[in-house]
């Protein structure tokens, strides 16, 4: 039985994505993602189903993540770098108005096609053991755009944002901008839910996926730049735009992160 770290280090699993991005400057990374979609290479990161860890959080911790706001309206959730849209659809099936954002137009059309089929006959993988259809369905929509452009959602802000394998897909130099865009896109008091992956990879190793051990709290709670390798003196505590409210080890996660992934939930100050 191989561990997640060992699997990532197989020549096939590890080096294709890394080499692809090493060949282009950071300014060209949007094009590099587009190329991967256009050449049918999304299987390099596609897990084939929504996140078991997020499903369990939604179904078991309504105290944290109810889809209905105090005024009775559905909450709006954004999934940046949503890929094929598994989580966007699953979130709508759990009652949220869910929006997926993707840089690639091919990614968006793939997600739209997936959502169209999946909403007609949702597969069992969208629901966990504690599923009870209490809230009905929310809406699903997709936006083609660059997360780092201030007008990418046409000024719309969100109650919640979910990040899985979006931060780890970005070059470390983009991390401070990632945190600042997250702060811009959330209402005050809004929640940023991160399924932290990969935490088992050494900080000195290249990505994508870039290793993230300690990176979320540095960026979001401490106000650091999230670049933790090579090591440097600790930041002044608590100067970030977010406060970490929950830090949960999920019982179930994707096989690639099972036993290592953490769910962190940050509130926008
Ligand atoms: C590693 S994939 C993860 C996809 C998805 N979260 C999943 O779990 O399948 C990263 C995704 O982010 C998208 N992406 C990269 N840079 C982006 C940007 N600046 N704005 C929006 N999407 C971006 C890529 O096209 C790709 O689909």
From TrEMBL:
GO MF annotation, one: S-adenosylmethionine-dependent methyltransferase activity
Keyword Transferase: yes
PANTHER family recorded: CYSTEINE SULFINATE DESULFINASE_CYSTEINE DESULFURASE AND RELATED ENZYMES (PTHR32183:SF6), PTHR32183
Lineage: superkingdom: Eukaryota
Keyword Ribonucleoprotein: no
Protein name: Thiol methyltransferase
GO biological process: methylation
Pfam family, one: TPMT
Alphabetical UniProt keywords: Methyltransferase, Phosphoprotein, S-adenosyl-L-methionine, Transferase
InterPro entries: SAM-dependent_MTases_sf, TPMT
